[in-house]
Amino acid sequence: MKQSLQLQLSQQLTITPQLQQAIQLLLLSTPELLTQIQEQLDSNSMLEMSEHQDEPDSIPAWQESILNKVRTNLVQRDTFDDMPEIKDTSAGSLRNHLLWQMEMTPFSDEERTIAIALIDAVDDSGYLSASFDEIKMGLAKDGLNPSEMLIEEVLREIHQFDPFGVGSRSLQEYLALQLTTLDVNIPGLAQAQIIVDQHMALLGKHDYRQIKRETKFSQDDLATAIGLIKSLNPRPNSEYTNKDLDAIIPDLIIKKHKGEWAVELTANLSSRIRINDKYANLVQRADSSRDNQFLKNQLQEARWFLKSLQNRNDTLLKVAHCIMQNQQGFLEKGEFGLKPLILSTIADMTELHESTISRVTTNKFIQTPRGVFELKYFFSSQLATDSGDAVSSTAIKASIKQIIEEEPDEKPYSDNKIAAMIEGRGIHVARRTVAKYREALQIPPSNERKRMKEVI
Predict the structure, then answer these.
(1) How many CB atoms lie within 10 A of CB 107?
(2) Beta-carbon count within 10 A of 314 CB
(3) Which residues, in sequence order, are CB contacts of 428 under 8 Å at separation 6+?
(4) Contact predicate 269/59, CB 8 Å
(5) Can you point out the beta strands (E) in 347-454?
(6) What DSSP element (H or E) covers 29?
(7) Contacts of 288 (CB under 8 A, 6+ apart)
(8) Bridge partners, 390 (sequence order)
(9) Domain residue ranges in the chain
(10) HSE of 262 in the Cβ direction (CA atoms, 13 Å)?
């Protein structure tokens, strides 16, 4: 037994440098990873980055911008311990946010030019502020004369950017886009789509009686459809602040492709970092001189780093894929569709340790049609329902928030009342649980809410 223990310790000591590096890279966010990559490029002559910007895997402009800032910091600093958060503080944050997403989209040169023109025409609210004719006039100065069909195709792709629906030409188009993301089984969806598509003018006048006459909808169907439309966001950019857009760079993005949700990395930098063949060829296998040993060590460290980078990418993709597989309800319905999820579930699916799952999901963000979220957001405890299913605590918080938003101004609901209303939905929740979740949402108790509304 003693001999076995000694052998095990020896093996652990052998893999420690690689293991430490792999763990370190797993902990890094995308800006931090870029910093680490630049540090390795500057310290290890065996590593190089392709400088050809016209290559298919060339680095996007937003990454290049961060790398330039990192290079500046490397000149000015001896340590990375107090490195400030890297963020773009220039004006036009929404534009920059859209441009780096454009860089991740496989556009042709012509489509890219059209996309830039469209992004330049997006106002602060997230709407397209120019007509296609105006867009075409601007493109003509660049020697382009694209068809309206091509401009439409590029705009449809931009609609899928974050924030979702950005570049919509009207409130009607933006509402229609949001409705397409909802689950087809949501009550009132079909009626809401008809109202938005055919009766927008009446909707704007709140002439529900005339809508009912023209659509022949029942009173209940009409009320459900109108309620669904009112729950939609009126402005594509309303939920995003400059700070949010500047500080967070998603590591991953999830899109629907041919009816299936697919997770991709937003930045696969490992494809651009490579061993410098010129220096690697200087290493002589049989040479034991000091210089040659130094080159050997540099080459080994370079190979370890590239392997650790690839391991980070593979692990991040695997974990994110499993999380989103479990949370497809969120992609279709929003936070109400979140399911209970714990670290051990993903650990079992990926055959990784729970501590690894914790590392991978900390400070890693994924861009979804519902916005940008930290991977940890998708984990939550559970409560039981009458049907025997489980519902996540995040979904319960969403229900509490919705109930309070719809409560009468003159008589806000108590925590007991909210618990009873949630119980009516088949979910068992205690009053103290409602109070705890309400406080976590920073919502005051009913007496304070009533006092605030009386003042207003």
Answers:
(1) 16
(2) 12
(3) 383, 384, 385, 386
(4) yes
(5) 365-368, 371-374, 382-384, 390-392
(6) none
(7) none
(8) 384
(9) 169-235, 248-269+299-372, 382-455
(10) 8
Closest CA to 299 of 42, 45, 73: 45
**Do residues 115 and 135 touch, judged by C-beta distance below 8 A?**
no
* Residue 169 DSSP class: S
Rounded Cα–Cα distance for residues 379 and 343 (Å): 7
The first and second tokens of residue 404, run together, are 């309070």
Q: Which of 48, 106, 69 is nearest to 274 (CA)?
A: 48
Q: Which phi and psi (to 5°) does residue 68 adopt?
A: -60, -40
Name the strand (E) or helix (H) holding 357.
helix 354-361
CA torsion sign for 21, 24, 28, 31 is: negative
Q: What is the pTM of this model?
A: 0.49
Angle between helices 354-361 and 2-27 (to 10 degrees): 20
CA-closest candidate to residue 34, choices 59, 66, 78 = 66
Q: What angle do CA 114, 119, 125 make, to 5 degrees?
A: 150
For the chain, the C-alpha Rg in angstroms (whole number) is 27
**What CA–CA distances, in Å, run from 15 to 12, 40, 58?**
5, 20, 33
In angstroms, the first-to-last Cα distance of the chain is: 75
| Cβ-proximal residues to 8 (8 Å cutoff; 6+ apart), any chain | none
May I ask the CATH architecture of the domain 382-455? Orthogonal Bundle (1.10)
Residue 325 half-sphere exposure toward CB, CA atoms < 13 A: 10
Contact 341, 380 (CB under 8 A): yes
Q: Return the closest-CA partner of residue 32 out of 243, 241, 247, 244.
A: 247
- Say which DSSP state 269 is in: G
DSSP H helices, 181-217, are 189-198, 200-204, 208-215
Rounded CA-CA distance 115/112 in Å is: 5
pLDDT per residue, tens digit, the chain (456 aa), is 444 334 343 344 344 566 677 778 888 877 788 888 888 888 888 888 775 444 444 444 444 544 454 444 446 433 333 333 333 333 346 887 788 778 767 788 899 999 999 999 998 888 998 889 989 998 998 889 999 999 999 999 999 887 889 999 999 999 999 998 888 888 999 999 999 999 998 988 888 899 999 999 999 999 999 989 988 888 888 655 444 444 567 888 898 877 888 898 876 666 678 888 888 888 877 677 888 888 888 888 888 898 888 888 889 999 999 999 888 888 887 777 778 887 888 988 988 887 788 778 888 899 888 888 889 888 876 555 555 555 667 778 888 888 888 888 888 889 888 888 888 877 778 888 888 888 877 788 888 887 766 544
